[in-house]
């Protein structure tokens, strides 16, 4: 018997972070700029939910509104910070020399290791939406690294594509974790098999509707499953977009 | 203080800054060997200001060659 939890979209933590007032040094942009963050797990002021899942500590569904809206340059250690851009354009700058404009389908893994700084910036009027995922590393104070990748939704339609992990073409990270994406436009059944029963799977519905191991997940709903051999995602007729995070528990 | 107890490591859940009881943070006035429980309750992460109670104890080994960089700093 597997273990599970279901987290509905409206059960997540919510923060609106302004570019004015007490958070002005944290969030940049003109006075109307702000960031919204829905947190699946405890983070910052939101501490009423689950503390994490396996090696995942942060799963943030974030939007940056108005030109110049940013998390200003700030330091990190140790965490492997991944961003998956859904809409708009993200300018990512880091102290490893990384300077990238990332659009829909683009993603990166920034392993802060022994120390690195980054800025996350939307330079445009169109809101920028991204999923931010933080993983604990397998070792403390690793050499910092930055790798970006791209998910081609057209080429990857109706199949599970590994974005982060050991597979060829995927972005590797120093953790026993994988991130995959499943975009569908027709009915289908997809079986995701974690590495072992010691691994858990967090299924997040970016868009559309699916049935995940007997649970209907709508837009921004999610489900965690562990102690299982496989996770079954049944996709319906409409368009659907799912992020699948696997982590050792 | 129970010296039998292994020295532990803690990580800031706001930014990832790590505190190692064996190393302390001499540059911030916390001597090597200071147990986490003896770090002042009002202490905050020197990098991001996250309060002490939002650190998590971790059993994660160091990368090769670490923590040499910090010990030498």
Strands, helices and their partners?
The complex is a heterodimer of chains A (about 250) and B (about 70).
Chain A: E1 3-7, E2 13-18, E3 27-28, E4 34-39, E5 56-65, E6 69-76, E7 80-87, E8 90-94, E9 99-102, E10 106-111, E11 116-122, E12 128-135, E13 145-150, E14 159-164, E15 177-184, E16 188-192, E17 199-207, E18 210-212, E19 215-217, E20 222-226, E21 231-235, E22 240-248
Antiparallel strand pairs in A: 1-20, 2-4, 3-6, 4-5, 5-12, 6-11, 7-10, 7-12, 8-9, 8-11, 10-13, 14-15, 15-22, 16-21, 17-20, 17-22, 18-19, 18-21
Chain B: E1 9-12, E2 18-20, E3 55-58, H1 68-72
Antiparallel strand pairs in B: 1-2, 1-3
Spell out the key features of this protein.
heterodimer; A: 249 residues; Jelly Rolls; 2 domains; seven-stranded antiparallel β-sheet; 22 strands; globular; B: 73 residues; mainly beta; Rubrerythrin, domain 2; three-stranded antiparallel β-sheet; 1 helix; 15% strand
Describe the structure.
The complex is a heterodimer of chains A (249) and B (73). With 249 residues, chain A is mainly beta. Chain A has 2 domains: 12-150, Jelly Rolls (Sandwich); 159-248, Jelly Rolls (Sandwich). Chain A is built from no helices and 22 strands. Chain A has strands at residues 3-7, 13-18, 27-28, 34-39, 56-65, 69-76, 80-87, 90-94, 99-102, 106-111, 116-122, 128-135, 145-150, 159-164, 177-184, 188-192, 199-207, 210-212, 215-217, 222-226, 231-235, 240-248. Chain A has a 7-stranded antiparallel β-sheet, with no helix packed on it. A 6-stranded antiparallel β-sheet of chain A has the order 1-20-17-22-15-14, with no helix packed on it. In chain A, a hairpin with a 4-residue loop joins strand 8 and strand 9. The mean pLDDT of chain A is 97. With 73 residues, chain B is mostly beta strands. Chain B has a single domain, classed as Rubrerythrin, domain 2 (Single Sheet), CATH 2.20.28.10. Helices cover 7% and strands 15% of the residues of chain B. Chain B has one helix at residues 68-72; strands at residues 9-12, 18-20, 55-58. Chain B has a 3-stranded antiparallel β-sheet, with no helix packed on it. In chain B, strand 1 (9-12) and strand 2 (18-20) form a beta hairpin. Chain B is globular, with a radius of gyration of 12 Å. The chains are: A mainly beta (249), B mainly beta (73).
